[in-house]
Amino acid sequence: MKGSVGAVLLAGIALRLATTLVFPTLQQTLDKSVEFSTPITSFKSLREGIYLLNNDLPVYDGGVVHHSPMLLAILSIFNGSEFLVSLFYTIIDSLIALNLIHILNYFQNSINFNNPTWAIGLLYLFNPLSLLTCISRSSTIFNNLFISYSIYFALNNNLLLASIFIALASNISIYSLLLILPVSFIIPKNYSSTYSPTHSHSASIDSNKKKISNNNNANKISKLNCSRLRFAIFALLSFTLLIAISFIINNSNWNFIYATFWMDLSSSKNFPNLGLWWYFFIEMFDSFIPFYKTVFNLFIVSIVLTISIRFNSSQPFYSLILSIGWITLTKPYPTLGDISFFIGLIPFFKPLFGYLKYPVISSLLFLHAILLSPIFYHIWIDVGSGNSNFFYAINLVYALSVALIITEFCWAMLRCEYDKGSPNYKAKVAQI
Amino acid sequence: MALLATIHRRVIDMGLVPKIMKRLPLVSIFLAAIGIVLFLMLPMDGQYRHTYISENALMPSQAYSYFRESEWNILRGYRTEIDIFPSMPSRDRNLVMTQWLEEFGTKTSVYHNDEYGDTLYGIFNAPRGDGTEAIVLAIPWYNADGEFNTGGAALGIALSRFFSRWPIWSKNIIVVFSENPDGALRSWVDAYHHSLDLTGGSIEAAIVMDYPSSSDFFDYVEIYYHGINGELPNLDLLNIAIQITEHEGMQVSLHGLPKESLHQNNYFSRLRTLLLGTKDALLSGIKPRHGNEAFSGFRIQAITLKAKFTPDNNDHDITSFGRIAEASFRSVNNLLEKFHQSFFFYLILAPKYFVSISSYLPSAVTFSVAFAISSLSSYINNSYSTLPIFSEYNLLAGLLFTISITFSFFVARLSLLFTEPRLLVLGSVFLSVLPHLLGNRFTIPEPLSYRLKSIAFLYISLVLTSLLVLNFSLAFGIGILGFAMTAVKTITIHSSMRVRVRNTMHLLLSNPFTSVLLFTYIFDKDIYGIKIFYEFIHSWNTLNCWTWFIICVGWLPPWILVSISSIQTNTVMQSPDYGKKQL
Fold this sequence. Notes:
- The complex is a heterodimer.
- Chain A is mainly α.
- Chain A contains 19 helices and no strands.
- In chain A, helix 1 (2-22) runs parallel beside helix 6 (118-125), helix 7 (128-136) crosses helix 17 and helix 16 (316-330) runs antiparallel to helix 17.
- In chain A, 47% of the residues are buried.
- By secondary structure, chain B is an alpha/beta fold.
- Helix content of chain B is 51%, strand content 12%.
- An eight-stranded mixed β-sheet of chain B has the order 2-3-5-4-6-10-8-9, with helices on both faces. In chain B, strands 1-13-12 form a three-stranded antiparallel β-sheet.
- In chain B, helix 8 (235-247) crosses helix 10 and helix 12 packs across helix 14 (446-467).
- Chain B is elongated, with a radius of gyration of 28 Å.
- The A-B interface holds A 114-115, 119, 354, 360, 364, 367-368, 371-372, 375-376, 378-379, 383-387, 390, 425-426, 431-432 and B 5, 8-9, 231-232, 297, 299, 338, 341-342, 344-345, 372, 376, 388-390, 462, 465-466, 469-470, 581-582.
- Chain B: One of its GO terms (cellular component) is GPI-anchor transamidase complex.
- Chain B: Pfam families: Gaa1.
């Protein structure tokens, strides 16, 4: 078991390093493509930031760098060595795979995975999207790493580390702050027992048992609420602490907040990307822009809140995955790196696969969309025979496919809840 | 919604879904047939539209054209001098031409290229405007058929002189004399955008002139417009050229249609133009190159005008040919902005009729969907659909897929170094026959065969989808020529001889190399036979035309997988837990 995990990780690392060696220019090509690189995740601007930092120049004054000061400080220790940087990114990516395997191990008894648990790591590492994201050196993978650590520690009831990692993730991408709520819901009720993702807190579902051990349960639930609250407070505190550290690193200057968090929230650099935002703000009267940006942000928050609250007692782990998917779909600067992490989490839905109604359509749609997206960008920017409408149309198709995947899983979760957590794929509950 | 719900309920009541699922191969064939029917419907009344000028500023033929009697003698004078050029080395030709160009104040320069020879070009700076944009008049010394372009060169220099006396130009005028319309012109365009010192801003449009005769008179005009890699010039440019030509009283022929059929306008004449156009777009860059192909990829709208001669009926004089260029230049000169967007996707049915993208795209989309459905069918319509994702067969199929892509890529690359088309074709024939020859000496597990086909069809479906807007003709062509692949059946020990022979036939028909060979043998006498493979390589080397790579990397790997899948299979017993999950 241990050996095969190691083999999978080594294979992933070897694949990444080999790809970098065989195609040395691939990194720059990918960094230029809008699918893998956005102003806030691109490695080019990260390198610019490191250069400025190393030469004691003001990092955020030029309006080019939008990476967190801590990330710049950490990456500056590699001193520009290409190989070390590739190795570092490769290791980060394999750590994500390792975390996925650990999380699956945690659920091993409840998810009937059929395949060995290292398969999920293999799926992640050999997913072309995660491979290319890793090679493009997008800073998205730090976000993914921290989220995966946070999930792992939260499941293992290590509140402090879980909160620190979610704060780190938020430091890379501010929208990860929203995950505090769904992550707090996956903190297990019992310190000892593991639970199933399809019906985690059985007490809330099975009302008979609830009556019998009412007192006992109430006690447990309050304890649980207490630990959730503790987690949230820890997370916010460590986020504040990280900002303070960043402040010190950034020569006691607050301008990094504007360049990183505010830039992400307000999408102030209008740049074509896979997301749904940029097209709206190409030609809009200035006076409307703040309103729509607020609404778009509210849109992200509201669905994350509702999904996690709705499923908080029955399937909190799944609602967390859906929240990650939702943020990927609606944030202003998404990349394929975000979606590759979401895809890496999809195998956890194994028990619900039987409920899916049109997996073929949504996966084919997704495949075609990510394939056509660079082509439509090419005929817009390079050939000049298309225009921005072409590219945005394919963005919409891509968004539709991701939304289809999310709604399908949402439906599957509701069905599973209806079946009281033990899947019964044959039962028909709706006419359509 | 109520209607949808009713329909949905009826569909469920009749049990249509499982029935359709069982007959997916038929659905796939049905879709392909729909694709062809949709395509054949395009020349019908109501499916196509009259061309129109989208950009009002162009105003073709609105101003009087002055390149007439007053220029005759100048033109003839130059032509008499040029008549002796074929016997001169290109260096001397260019020297004389440089002197002439400089006489009326054109800045000239010669671009040296060791491989393709020298290219002389001159820039006449715009008297009005800021000189950031340019129009190109390109004259290859030798045309696509290797004839000396006497009339074209005379027109080129006479027109330059004529243009230089006018103060109306708001765009720079660049006149280019290259050795040929192929590599030489392309290398100049390439150099213009990368290394040349004397430049005149971004090139908006280019007109290539081909008048391979010293005759004063010609009969009608052929216009070539297909760029490489599926690019087309903006329809506005083609429209103004056609409108001006017809305004000057000449007939326009597209895709080399003979003179007799130019006046026809019925379903079959339109269909003929459509089919010829699709074939020309498919083989653009591979067929003899007329010059406009050289400008593809730099956002330059380019067309080639070619004067055609008939033995008895040449009643238009050479200055009318010059007037086409003059009036087109004046039209483009009027442009204040770029050419209109979204006017780049069209099929031409007749000089004045076109089909726009929304009408023709569905016919290629159906092929992509048909392949996707075949892929789905070979995944679910057998007893192995419930195997887990990580079963050895899936992994093996994935591995074979990766190997076949890598192999195909190397085939494509190696062919650039050693072009051995006979080997490719023989290899293809061998691989088509091999599964049949192997018989039961070598077998593969049955699920592997289904998985291989599933991956192969999904891959080719993705390839077709991605080609849709890039190169419609190529997508449509690969869809039709490769469709026989979906008919290849998985062979078990019980399969009859007939099925096996059919499989071999289908494989032979859908193989990229043999079917391209067959296609050009039937439809294009210019480049049939082994020659086409050399042309593929040549077009990649000189023009950067991707067709060879698309055929090798997009079409060959799925074909190899399908070929492997038709090796005789042995049934695999499934362990009882696999059957549990319902799809």
